[in-house]
Amino acid sequence: MFLSCCAAPSPSDPYAWGDSFPSCHPLLGRHHSPINVDRHMVRNDSLGPLHLEGFDVSQPGHWTLENDGHSVLLQVGSGMTVSGGGLPGVYHTIQLHFHWGAPAANGSEHTVDGRRYPMEMHVVNMKSIHPNVSAALDDPTGLAVLGFFIDVVYADNVHFGHISQKLSSVAYRGQMAKVKPFPLLSLLPKLNMSQYYRYSGSLTTPPCSQAVVWTLYEVPIYISWSQLAQFTSQIFSTEEDAEQVTPLQNNFRHVHPTFSRTVSASRDAGLLGATAGQPLGPAPAVFLLQTVVLGSFIFKL
């Protein structure tokens, strides 16, 4: 997860971040992100749908899309909050950004039963009691991040076009473009928002602060192959006038152990199947139900 408030990842190899940022060293903390989500979870019936205030309307003003050399970020301004669903307070939505792989490699940060999705989107929210993100990073629950896997179909996602149509304007590091606000809920799998996983973790870039309540949604966002290619092939980590331009690819951190952390499934989580207090069900259910959901998504287009 990238935050404009925080130091840029350097060096570029995530395994070496601990050399420059001790808090990123996986042996100095047991709440690092991302993780692999597997069947070692229990259902928590108290985890109902989150309340996404202001996500269903277009906010006033303009949003800003930015290539910061590490990701593409959409700064969304004020007007949206996240609460409920077991979160310890009200959180203000501040930005969203993306992680991806390469033309021939997937690039989600979290994995499900060892499977890495093509992309992952993070909606970053800051606890309302904090004046800024820096203060929130000192609170173990200072940030609430909504993570959405992104999978691929053949048809364009017209709602995702609000972002993908602007990507050519931010192809190079440092470039920014204005985006007319749109209902953020239109990007999300709104029929399946009660199905998610929950755990305590960290930022996935330096300073790797262990200050994040993670909510990972089961049902992906679907975009087209051409929309995916815009990220994997047409975004660069260097400035436009650089002697040698470098594609921005594989901007994800490696998976970390869960150690003793509890990873919970919401009461409506269904792709892996579960009974209260019991390990989740057999992995083949993942692919079977994904096919059903995907078919439904295509039909609704």
Automatic annotation (TrEMBL):
Function text: Reversible hydration of carbon dioxide.
Entry's family note: Belongs to the alpha-carbonic anhydrase family.
Keywords: Glycoprotein, Lyase, Metal-binding, Zinc
Entry protein name: Carbonic anhydrase
PROSITE patterns the record matches: ALPHA_CA_1, ALPHA_CA_2
Cofactor(s) in the UniProt record: Zn(2+)
One Pfam short name: Carb_anhydrase
PANTHER family (alphabetical): CARBONIC ANHYDRASE (PTHR18952), CARBONIC ANHYDRASE 15 (PTHR18952:SF134)
GO CC field: plasma membrane
InterPro entries, alphabetized: CA_dom, CA_dom_sf, Carbonic_anhydrase_a-class, Carbonic_anhydrase_a-class_CS
Domain Alpha-carbonic anhydrase stretches: 1-267
GO-annotated molecular function: carbonate dehydratase activity; zinc ion binding
Catalytic activity reported: hydrogencarbonate + H(+) = CO2 + H2O
